[in-house]
């Protein structure tokens, strides 16, 4: 059975948001109505795109293969909700991606870049004082380790993916890279990769984010990137970057830093970030001769979380915990907790959980961690929620600020406010864990970029 999706043609169809019927598991077909985020007077007329209705979700796949089944679908999530114009371009990208996964020359070049340029491997650091902080009155508690992605070149995990995709773009003969960034970490990583590989680079960034992350804007410009201001935040910047790419498909390359968008984009980003989990497994074996018991990561769209989680998805004895941004509180309407408060719909070319109203209009997200301000999550993250393989919680702005300050004082480490949400959940998690439980928290980025925000923060009443 097919369903009609009303969308804007060419450069606006991929930018649509949609509310899927709330009862997608029923016998009736899912009625997905795509509503444009904004309608420009210069855009083409409306058209209708017919696609197959989404299938009911699958049970958790016991053996996860690197090649996603069903054209990039994770159960009912993911796919390619794009105009026909983009299908050929995405097909070429998928073919190149599959090729480089088995190309020894590419893999050797990437391994060298990750080691000598990015600075991998990053340490798995035992946080002794943080561990002591969470011990109970009997001196018992979990052992806390930090995966130090903040020590990567550029100050975040984003460079792992940026350098790999920039290499792919160059192989495909593309001369210009376009990207969108929120907190600026993906922008810095992309600009650095483009400088290294002699590629032109344009970064789109929300005007409000540029004010909050002025230091990263300066770094992008110093690296030779052109930084374009977009009214709004990361979601508007993403839409504009995609429009720019769609208008120059033969010469430009859209370098996504998140695990969202049409296939193969989510799988590519996750694959290149999975080095985090692979290193963690090896380092854990070296340090204590086993696997971690619990993995914790913040959740914006999900790239750093999947980078840590993916290696352990088939290890059912390893608990996976994602922590979203609760902002002013889950009931405040000012948060980025998509998995806690969202519904299933289509946005930026894929089906996933989204923050949207009853009419399918995308809601504006909020988080003190700018990199978490996105109204959706990746399809694979959505699948992990629906199958129950991972559990998801949230932390407020205040809790993230407290966690930021706590790690500074106890360990001498500045965590990004995004990663501070994962650290904040330790307050609730640690008292529930047995003595000696091995917990790994992904410190996805460094927090010197957020120091002004932390100093100027004033508590917000959630009543």
TrEMBL record:
It comes from the Eukaryota. The keyword Amino-acid biosynthesis applies. Its cofactor is pyridoxal 5'-phosphate. It catalyses: (1S,2R)-1-C-(indol-3-yl)glycerol 3-phosphate + L-serine = D-glyceraldehyde 3-phosphate + L-tryptophan + H2O. It comes from Herrania umbratica. This is Tryptophan synthase. Pathway: Amino-acid biosynthesis; L-tryptophan biosynthesis; L-tryptophan from chorismate: step 5/5. PROSITE patterns: TRP_SYNTHASE_BETA. Residues 119-445 form the Tryptophan synthase beta chain-like PALP domain. It is an enzyme of class 4 (lyase). Keywords: Amino-acid biosynthesis, Aromatic amino acid biosynthesis, Lyase, Pyridoxal phosphate, Tryptophan biosynthesis. The gene is LOC110423748. The lineage of its organism: Eukaryota, Viridiplantae, Streptophyta, Embryophyta, Tracheophyta. Its EC number is 4.2.1.20. The keyword Membrane does not apply. Gene3D superfamilies: 3.40.50.1100.
């Amino acid at each position: 059975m097919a369903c009609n999706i009303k969308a804007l043609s060419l450069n606006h169809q991929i930018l649509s948001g949609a509310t899927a019927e709330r009862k997608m598991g029923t016998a009736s077909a899912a009625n997905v109505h795509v509503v444009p985020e904004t309608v420009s007077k210069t855009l083409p007329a409306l058209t209708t795109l017919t696609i197959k209705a989404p299938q009911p979700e699958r049970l958790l796949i016991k053996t996860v293969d690197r090649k996603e089944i069903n054209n990039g679908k994770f159960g009912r999530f993911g796919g390619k909700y794009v105009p026909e114009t983009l299908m050929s371009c995405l097909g070429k990208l998928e073919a190149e991606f599959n090729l480089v996964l088995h190309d020894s020359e590419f893999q050797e070049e990437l391994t060298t870049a990750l080691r000598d340029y990015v600075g991998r491997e990053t340490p798995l650091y035992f946080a002794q004082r943080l561990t002591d902080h969470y011990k109970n009155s009997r001196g018992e508690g979990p052992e806390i380790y930090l995966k130090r992605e903040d020590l990567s070149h550029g100050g975040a995990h984003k460079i792992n993916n940026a350098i790999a995709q920039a290499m792919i773009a160059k192989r495909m003969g593309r001369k210009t890279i376009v990207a969108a960034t929120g907190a600026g970490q993906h922008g810095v990583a992309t600009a650095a990769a483009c400088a290294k590989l002699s590629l032109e680079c344009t970064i789109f960034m929300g005007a409000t984010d540029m004010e909050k992350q002025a230091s990263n804007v300066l770094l992008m410009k110093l690296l030779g990137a052109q930084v374009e201001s977009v009214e709004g935040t990361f979601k508007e910047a993403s839409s504009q970057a995609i429009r720019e790419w769609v208008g120059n498909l033969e010469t430009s390359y859209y370098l996504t830093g998140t695990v969202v968008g049409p296939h193969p984009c989510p799988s590519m980003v996750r694959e290149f970030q999975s080095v985090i989990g692979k290193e963690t497994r090896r380092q854990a074996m070296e340090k204590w001769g086993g696997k971690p018991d619990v993995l914790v990561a913040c959740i914006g769209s999900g790239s750093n979380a999947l980078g840590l989680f993916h290696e352990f998805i088939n290890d059912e004895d390893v608990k996976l915990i994602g922590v979203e941004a609760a902002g002013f509180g889950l009931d405040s309407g000012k948060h980025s907790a998509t998995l806690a408060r969202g519904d299933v719909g289509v946005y930026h070319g894929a089906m996933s959980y989204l923050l949207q109203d009853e009419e399918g209009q995308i809601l504006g997200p909020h988080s003190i961690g700018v990199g978490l301000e996105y109204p959706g999550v990746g399809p694979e993250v959505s699948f992990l929620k629906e199958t129950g393989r991972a559990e998801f919680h949230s932390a407020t702005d205040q809790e993230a600020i407290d966690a930021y300050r706590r790690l500074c004082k106890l360990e001498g480490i500045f965590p990004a406010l995004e990663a501070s949400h994962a650290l904040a959940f330790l307050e609730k998690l640690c008292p529930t864990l047995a003595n000696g439980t091995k917990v790994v928290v992904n410190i996805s980025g460094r927090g010197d970029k957020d120091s002004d925000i932390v100093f100027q923060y004033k508590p917000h009443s959630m009543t």
